[in-house]
Amino acid sequence: MGVSNEFKAQLKAGKIVEALTLALSEAIELEITTWVSSANSDTSPGVRTDQPLAGHSMRTRINIVDGDIENEVGSEFLNSGPYNELREFHLQQVHEGREIIQENLANLQQLFTVLTNTLSEMPGSRLRSNPQQVLPSVDPENP
Questions:
Q1: Which of 60, 81, 120, 128 has the fewest CB atoms within 10 Å of its CB?
Q2: Cα separation of 31 and 83, whole Å?
Q3: Among 21-25, 39-43, 84-88, 95-99, which stretch is predicted with the lowest mean pLDDT?
Q4: What band does 20 get if pLDDT is binned at 50, 70 and 90?
């Protein structure tokens, strides 16, 4: 089940905190992969065609909690490689990805605020005294 479907399933089940925790855990990391598939790819049974050949991909992983940025550049994208002009495309995708992360975090923050305010107004809510209890941890290793 994809993360989006899992999020929707949590919401349908009324597990709002779990759904938001899932959304937050997925919002902290972005992975962008650019790869070139070959028209001559081997389509024999047992051969994976959903993976790039060695040297035919660029990958960037951004973790906003740890501040880590990892880049992997395949040899075919280097200076004299046949795909070096796709480096600019990949960098543009990384730039757009940063903007998407910022927008997603702002949306999540608004959602948490609305949820916290709504829950704290409910009769008998324990959140009346501490509305921060509903917020999940942003540390995936210490939820």
A1: 128
A2: 20
A3: 39-43
A4: confident
Q: Check the CA dihedral 107-109-113-115 and report its sign.
A: positive
The CB density around residue 51, as the number of other CB atoms within 10 Å, is 12
Judged against a pLDDT cut of 80, whether residue 134 lies above it is answered with no
CB atoms within 10 A of CB 14: 8
Residue closest to 93 by CA, chosen among 6, 17, 35, 16: 35
What are the Cα distances from residue 92, in Å, to 16, 27, 73? 35, 20, 15
Neighbours of 113 (CB within 10 A): 12
pLDDT reading at 79 higher than 60: yes
DSSP 112: H
Tokens in use for 49?
């065609």
State the Cα–Cα distance between residues 49 and 38, nearest whole angstrom.
9
CB atoms within 10 A of CB 101: 16
pLDDT tier for residue 99 given thresholds of 50, 70 and 90: confident
Q: Closest by alpha carbon to 32, among 85, 115, 113, 100?
A: 100
CA 73 to chain centre: 20
